[in-house]
UniProtKB/TrEMBL annotation:
Residues 4-153 form the AAA+ ATPase domain. It comes from Halorubrum pallidum. It catalyses: cytidine + ATP = CMP + ADP + H(+); uridine + ATP = UMP + ADP + H(+). This is Uridine kinase. GO terms for molecular function: ATP binding; uridine kinase activity. PANTHER family: URIDINE KINASE (PTHR10285). CDD domains: UMPK (cd02023). The gene is udk.
Length: 232
């Protein structure tokens, strides 16, 4: 049985390029990688009618079923498969079907609030924040929401001003402080190629974990306690 050893979180504002980065860095890894879109863990809103679902704030942390997501990540890390929900943006709800996801060497959790939850963050080996200017993001979002998500222009603008932008400022942007690395402009090729190399090494078992979380802090503390943390 293959037990996943390396978990990456990819956060960032809407349209920042999270999905694109996630696809690019994992595309050569075949079955060794599991991609978990945070969107799949939006709460089941079957109890609301379509109009009510249209007016939900989908950028607030309360829109997600965190317990289910945490449980699924724990199961995958334990070597057990999970039944991952699927999401339909056109109807603002989960689909009826689930997809069986097997444990793999690499797991990528990607979504606006991928770095929001403290317990999830602790399960991650690498935390990334994709940073793209707000004007570029909204232009990308308009195009995508109209073409792929069945929205009209007025609706996209209203939603952006009423919830997407304020929630970005209140929750998404501040989650950047949990990131290990910030990727400017989304799919920039230097960052993508470095990450691809890192993931390939993880899958092949060649990875050097000299960068493990906390190791540098411990080294600095040790030097300080020995009185050798000054210049030179
Ligand atoms: N570096 C880039 N240059 C140009 N277009 C991009 C870039 N990154 C993403 N896009 C496009 O922007 C849109 C949103 O990107 P996506 O990766 O889905 O963002 P997110 O997952 O952060 O919402 C997509 O249509 C994608 O093709
Ligand atoms: N029913 C829904 C659910 C979510 N959204 C928006 O999706 C955005 C997150 O997806 P990205 O690919 O852009 O990261 C988020 O900003 C929600 O507003 C929606 O419009 N409808």
């Amino acid at each position: 049985m293959c037990v996943p050893s390396f978990v990456i979180g990819i956060a960032g504002g809407t349209g920042a390029g999270k999905t694109t980065v996630s696809r690019l860095v994992t595309r050569d890894l075949g079955d060794s990688v599991t991609r978990i879109p945070l969107d799949n863990y939006y709460e089941d809103l079957t109890h609301l009618d379509f109009e009510e679902r249209q007016s939900v704030n989908y950028d607030h942390p309360s829109a997600f079923e965190w317990d289910l997501l945490r449980g699924h990540l724990e199961s995958l890390l334990d070597g057990q498969s999970v039944e991952m929900p699927q999401y339909d943006f056109e109807v603002h709800n989960r689909k009826a079907e689930r997809v069986t996801v097997e444990p793999t060497d690499v797991i990528v959790l990607e979504g606006i609030l991928a770095l929001y939850d403290e317990e999830m963050n602790e399960m991650m080996d690498l935390r990334l924040f994709v940073e793209t200017d707000a004007d570029v993001r909204i232009l990308r979002r308009i195009r995508r929401d109209v073409i792929d998500r069945g929205r009209d222009l007025e609706g996209v603008i209203d939603q952006y001003l009423s919830t997407v932008k304020p929630m970005h400022e209140q929750f998404i942007e501040p989650s950047k402080k949990h990131a290990d690395l910030i990727i400017p402009e989304g799919a920039n090729s230097v960052a993508v190629n470095l990450l691809k190399e890192k993931l390939r090494a993880e899958v092949d078992g060649d990875a050097v974990r000299s960068w493990e979380r906390g190791s540098l802090e411990a080294e600095i503390d040790e030097k300080r306690s020995l009185g050798i943390d000054g210049d030179g």
